[in-house]
Design goal:
The complex is a heterodimer.
Chain A lengths: L2 H38 L9 H9 L16 H15 L1 H6 L3 H8 L2 H33 L10 H8 L8 H29 L2 H14 L28 H25 L4
Chain B lengths: L2 E11 L2 E12 L2 E6 L6 H9 L6 E6 L2 E2 L10 E4 L11 H12 L4 H10 L15 H13 L5 E5 L7 H15 L4 E5 L3 H7 L2 E6 L2 E7 L11
Parallel strand pairs in B: 3-8, 3-9, 6-7, 7-8
Antiparallel strand pairs in B: 1-2, 1-4, 4-5, 9-10
Helix pairs in contact in B: 2-4
The chains are: A mainly alpha, B alpha/beta.
């Protein structure tokens, strides 16, 4: 049995399974674009840029300090994590506990089933981010924004009450585009492993707690620190090493694959 | 000639011993009927043969290949275990077509033929979520038999079926019985089970209590 057939099946079923959730998710993105437009109306700048919009979506949160007292929860950051967790967490679990038994006996190999689900999860994450960036790009274009990765300190001040001396374009590309995608792929796999070992709810909650706790800690093992632009600037004073980030994320991914294989091999399909 | 040999099979889940020291030999051309109360271990035995669970002790050997060692799942098997589950947003035919695409060994016409044989309209665009219980059950049976597997496992196949549909299921089982397959059926209706099966295996508390042959009239063959 060729794995290509299994992947084709998972892509078809998985996307059908998630289509309504995906529409809602993209609605969330669009709503935040509109909200961004409302915010910048009150800011004294000539023209916002695509960079402003990307920073707005992937800024995350500045470093937490218990002294400052007021520390609003980053809604967009959490929104993205919740969306990815909802898109990924339930299909493999539902599949293994229902329809998937028919697939197992036909594909004859538990590892192939897992590999196919991993491929599906990567595809789903990529598709979601592709849609997200397409919306951002189109929105910026239609709104007449400057289509560069430049940014305005005034907008960051308006949305975060902090003044950031400089954000490199490479930081926007790495921490605002590449790392969110890579992080979502890795965290999805971890969520699939936890779901298969326990259940979908525990998998979802574990990931949510991990992502939530990361808001308050600047430890490099809370991987979502790498996807917060504000934590990777001169302002934060804790700029994360990009190379180190990639190595840690890749290592976690490989470990998760190995654990996933062990879990699926021992899984009792009752 | 297909053969399933179950050797000293025991399965413990948590603190419950759900199957205990099962020894059985199942051969093709025979319909085996599993008889027992709820929770006696019929479905677990079916899962064990399907490779869906692994033994705590013992082996399932299918055509000389040990399940879980030489093969992960039986190489040619169709199952309907407990409630059939399909994708709610697709029609019955689309669901079957999608499952069939994994092995790619049955064409659309065959799927349609099996659906029609059990009284399902293959051209019906109704989504699976709108199917009645009986229609879901029939779709589950088609799914189990459509790829012409050597081993067919049907757990409560006539659940929720009307009389006419029960007759159709009986006809299908009688037809495939002549095709040299191992067919295992669990059914709470003793009359129907005895009609369909050639050999009854009684299970109680996860153990095999008794095995006996039944004749064409569903009577116990006293010589077995």
């Amino acid at each position: 049995m060729k794995i290509a057939r299994l992947i084709k099946y998972d892509l078809k079923c998985g996307f059908a399974y998630n289509r309504i959730k995906l529409v809602i998710a993209l609605g969330f993105i669009l709503a935040n674009c509109v909200y961004f437009n409302m915010i910048i109306e009150g800011v004294q700048i000539d023209n916002a840029s695509l960079g402003d919009l990307i920073i707005y979506f992937f800024k995350g949160k500045a470093v937490f300090s218990s002294k400052t007292g007021n520390f609003p929860i980053p809604i967009i950051y959490l929104g993205f994590q919740i969306i990815v967790a909802i898109l990924i967490g339930y299909y493999p679990y539902d599949d293994i506990n229902g329809y998937g038994k028919q697939i197992f006996i036909r594909c004859q190999d538990k590892r192939k089933w897992l590999n196919s689900k991993v491929t599906w999860s990567i595809s789903t994450v990529l598709f979601f981010y592709l849609c997200t960036f397409t919306i951002l790009f189109l929105f910026a274009s239609i709104s007449g924004f400057d289509m560069s990765l430049g940014y305005h300190k005034e907008i960051i001040w308006e949305t975060n009450n902090i003044e950031i001396p400089n954000i490199e374009a490479s930081t926007i590309i790495f921490n605002g585009i590449l790392m969110p995608i890579v992080y979502s792929i890795v965290i999805s796999l971890i969520q699939i492993c936890i779901s298969l070992g326990t259940n979908a709810i525990i998998g979802f909650l574990t990931i949510m707690i991990y992502d939530f706790v990361a808001i308050f800690f600047t430890n490099k093992f809370f991987l979502s620190n790498y996807i917060m632009i504000l934590r990777n600037t001169e302002y934060s004073g804790v700029e994360y090493n990009k190379f180190e980030g990639v190595i840690i994320v890749l290592a976690v991914y490989i470990i998760a694959i190995l654990i996933g294989r062990m879990i699926i091999n021992k899984k009792q399909l009752v | 000639m297909n053969k399933i040999k179950i050797e000293n099979y025991s399965k413990t889940i948590g603190k419950n011993k759900v199957l205990s020291d099962i020894n059985l030999t199942l051969e093709s051309g025979i319909v085996y009927g599993l008889k027992g109360k709820n929770g006696s271990g019929k479905t677990m035995l079916m899962r064990a043969i399907s490779g869906l669970i692994s033994p705590t002790v013992g082996n399932v050997i299918i055509n000389e290949k040990v399940l879980g060692k030489d093969i992960s799942f039986p190489e040619s098997i169709g199952i309907l275990i407990e409630n059939p589950s399909f994708l709610p947003q697709y029609s019955g035919f689309d669901n079957l077509k999608m499952i069939a695409s994994i092995k790619n060994c049955v064409d659309d016409e065959k799927i349609k033929m099996y659906m029609s044989e059990l009284g399902l309209d293959p051209d019906d665009t109704k989504k699976y979520r709108k199917y009645s219980l009986g229609m879901k059950q029939k779709l589950g049976i088609v799914c189990a038999i459509m790829e012409n597997p050597d081993i067919i496992i049907l757990d409560e196949p006539i659940n929720a079926l009307d009389e006419e549909s029960v007759e159709k299921v009986k006809q299908v089982i009688t037809r495939i019985k002549s095709e040299d397959k191992i067919i295992i059926i669990a059914c709470h209706n003793k009359e129907e089970l005895f009609y369909l099966a050639d050999k009854i295996i009684e299970i109680e508390d996860g153990k095999i209590k008794r095995e006996y042959l039944v004749d064409n009239n569903g009577e116990i063959n006293e010589n077995s």
